[in-house]
Amino acid sequence: MAQPMDNVVDQVAQLNAARSLVLGDAAFYPQIVNGILPIVGASTRLELRRWGANFLAETFASPMLAVAQKEQLAPNVLQTIREILELPETDTTVLQSLVQTSASLYPLVFRHVVNQPQDGKSWEMMSAIKQDILRRMDSFPCPVKLCCAKFIQRVVQVQTPGLISDPRRPDQNETSLAVVPRNHAVLSIPNLEAESSGLLDRLLDVFQEETSDALLVNATLNCLAPLIRTRQSVANKIINAVLEFYPAKHVRPPFTPTIRVSVKSMERTARALLINILKKNPNHPLAGRMQAYIERLMQSRLEATDDASRKRGLPNEPTDGLDNAKRARLNALPPPMLKIPPMAPGPASFDRLFTLTEDTGLSSFDVKQLPIDLVLKIVVPLLSQVHDSTLAQAVDAVRARYQTITKDQNLQRQQQQKAAAQDEDDDYEPEYQPMDVASVVSEEASAVAAEVADLQPELVSLGPFVLPQPPPLSEEEAGEIGRSAVARVFGMLNAAETSPAPAKGQSQQKLGFARLAGSTFDRDAWSVLLARLATRAPAGLENDRQTKGDAVRRQTTIAESIRETLYRFILEDFRGRLNIAVIWLNEEWYNDRIQMKSAANQRDGTEEDSEPTVALNYDTWATRLLDGFLAYLDSRDIKVLVRFLSEVPEITIAITQRVASLAKDPERVNLCVQSLMYLIMFRPPAREMCLNTVEDVYQTYEESRPAAGKVLTKWRPQSTVLETATNAPESSEIKPITSEP
Amino acid sequence: MAYDPRRTNSGTSTPQPPPPPPPPPETSTQADMASTAQALETANPASAATDSYKLKFCTVCASNNNRSMEAHLQLSGAPTAFPVISFGTGSLVRLPGPSITQPNVYSFNTTSYNQMYEELSGKDERLYRSNGILNMLDRNRQLKWGPERFQDWVPGVPRVDHLSKGDKGAIGTEGGVVDVIITCEERCWDAVVDDLMNKGTALNYPVHVFNVDIKDNHEEALTGGKAILDLANRLNEAAVAEHRVHGSEGWENGTGPARQSFDEKVPEILADWQEKYPNLPALWTLAWL
């Protein structure tokens, strides 16, 4: 009996010596591992198997032993492990160590097989061990089961694609599905992937259990971090599984101290895992949910700890709606009615008005003695505490008092007015002492302040305020100021031009003829305003001036300066500002008509001496404008010219002559003829005048003949110029200005 | 502890009476072997240290000076003489200075307790004697060489040199792994759990991580250290029981609760322990090295 036992002690001692050898120098590992395998194999004594399994677990986990050497040792060890497992082994310690060893071996063998596809035997053995472990996992004792969970984690990590850090150096890459070639003889990527996906589900199943095993949950949570970190493809699945897991829900009462320790540990471990993930990647797409989960965990933990000591809470609903005692609990009592004393006798003052207390000490307290910030500190929290209805009562009371006072005072005032037409303000003054407000009730006071402000104008009647007469302006100053005003209007014109007017189309369509000049504040409105400023505002003034003499005349009037500025403004961009020109010229023309009409009326009624003359501006400015931009028109500007000619209120000979002058330029002959033709066709009052011009052009400029000839044959076939076709100028008849818009 | 010699003598019918031949605890055996190679074979007394299964512990606080070292002392000095290593999770070793804004700062892993002791006693012996810093450092330098940082620890790297340096509790931790980590502050527990996740769980080795909240002063450290020792004893008892049940005494002999594994008992043990020490709030998880 003693003999075999001594033998075992002896052997263990020797083995320990061997272990201390490899711990001191990892180079001895291959020799020792191969040496001990027969001693600790399947059929040996338990002590030796324990030692052996433990030693193997330590060996393949050791960071000191190179991966290549571990790979070399693996096949022999696999054989031993498989044999021991198939005993079948029942000792927890041995099983635990063997599963640990298998977990360490799995990536090694996997990598080995990836590089050496011909070594299918190793893979076969590893697979057999894996199947054996997975099959028996659920029947293993707890400590072994924990190691099985870790084993699964390792398998999933290996059989899920990882990152290829450097494709040129495959030996440096982490062992994962990504290093397996597509056409590998032994390893089929789809199968491995499917298996790992299934195993991951099995691993995560622990979070779905009705009753959680804290050990398994913690063991799983603690091994998930590397998976989440290095395996992007499954990371979110794992995180979501964790986020669905609330430890407190997975335990059954009674809440023994042991259960409490378990729940707390699961909560803290889940939190640690999520914090670990968040620390690695604060911008994780699930960061928000993880934060919320962590916060919820903290809360549920507080609740759980409170649970033990907390007494039964109030019922959620009144169990009996008619029971007064219960109703009283749920509905707070209405605040007591304020006792509002009648206003203190004597002359009315704000002080008295707002004093709602009867306490003389309080009402005589001068709040002004307190620094303002202190008062604020007191009043603001007070206001938030005052009950709504209390405040309302106080306000109502003050309002009622106030109304009585005003009524009384109005009555008094009327009586006084009747009695003597005296200033009531004087009587009123003594009662009005605004700085006398009693702030004891300042919370009410400030709340009512807004209301009082509305009513106050009645109390505060100011005398009329008269501005002093301004010093008289000289002519120059007036002109200067006028011009600067005009300049500002032009500023508006520019501003309105630059700002986009998206709603313009809509509003203008709707307005149409119903539009009022200047009612919309867009560019057109401002230009109408300017045009009218130039034309109508000074109408009639200039006449006086003219009579006064040349000296005054020379001074540019405001109207003239506006016209000049408008003229320049339009010429700056005549294509874009043509409508302003049209508006302006229409105003001029209209103004001219009106002036002439009024002048004619005056003429009828007065003697011939004082015959009023009218300065006509339309002709001057229409020709000036035309002269201004004709030079810049090119042959394609037909639309601009036609629009101008068709929209100005009146065509004069001066205008047609200007247009005819375009024919001087061979390039613009067509422009000239076409615009004239347009007038002939669509502006009957000007037709004759234009036909004459065309004849003129036809005769003067040879280049115009083809085009002008057509126009003439159509509209004036009897024209003499067509027959003669000579250069002899024909005196064009001068027609009266008759065309109207 | 004191069970093997008598048991061998008692000569029970089963062949395994001596110490339940310890597979993992081999470390201590081997330590003995290093000193006295043949002692084990020749004399029974030597096996007294080797017989029982022992959990391997790791204590952690912020600076690896006060709380973790007090616990280190308690655990390594206990009659059971647990294998124990200790760490700090701070970025630097911080010891109180002349004022709260002038701490004495040292780097982990490269400064020995002795250096600190010498330096501080040179600076102001009276001050550091009276606030207990020198006493603490003196204790620490008896236990191990210097403070180590948890985040720099690579589990699984052999700690044979610590054994040869004579660190207390080094016997049994040569393999560089532990079964239980006990932190002394929630912050440290968070740091440890987080760091283990970052380390990648490459060893596939399960480890129980506890926190026992201890205020950072000498008195609390002493009480806390004793409480930690109590916890360690309870845990170890369960682990030993597991080994016995499934081991030499034959697991068929065990009854219901006895057949429960050590791991399964942990929440229960902690809950019981917490009832006894309500002022030291505890926390636990199962992590991986």
Automatic annotation (TrEMBL), chain A:
Keywords: mRNA processing, Nucleus. It is found in: Nucleus. This is Symplekin/Pta1 N-terminal domain-containing protein. The keyword Nucleus applies. Gene3D superfamilies: Leucine-rich Repeat Variant. GO terms for cellular component: mRNA cleavage and polyadenylation specificity factor complex. Residues 408-420 have a biased composition (Low complexity). It comes from the Eukaryota.
From TrEMBL, chain B:
One of its GO terms (biological process) is mRNA 3'-end processing. It is an enzyme of class 3 (hydrolase). It is found in: Nucleus. Residues 15-26 have a biased composition (Pro residues). One of its GO terms (cellular component) is mRNA cleavage and polyadenylation specificity factor complex. One of its GO terms (molecular function) is RNA polymerase II CTD heptapeptide repeat phosphatase activity. Its EC number is 3.1.3.16. Residues 1-37 are annotated as: Disordered. It catalyses: O-phospho-L-seryl-[protein] + H2O = L-seryl-[protein] + phosphate; O-phospho-L-threonyl-[protein] + H2O = L-threonyl-[protein] + phosphate. The keyword Nucleus applies. Keywords: Hydrolase, mRNA processing, Nucleus, Protein phosphatase. The keyword Signal does not apply. InterPro entries: RNA_pol_II_suA. Residues 27-37 have a biased composition (Polar residues). Belongs to the SSU72 phosphatase family. Component of the cleavage and polyadenylation factor (CPF) complex. PANTHER family: RNA POLYMERASE II SUBUNIT A C-TERMINAL DOMAIN PHOSPHATASE. Component of the cleavage and polyadenylation factor (CPF) complex, which plays a key role in polyadenylation-dependent pre-mRNA 3'-end formation and cooperates with cleavage factors including the CFIA complex and NAB4/CFIB. SSU72 is required for 3'-end formation of snoRNAs. This is RNA polymerase II subunit A C-terminal domain phosphatase SSU72.
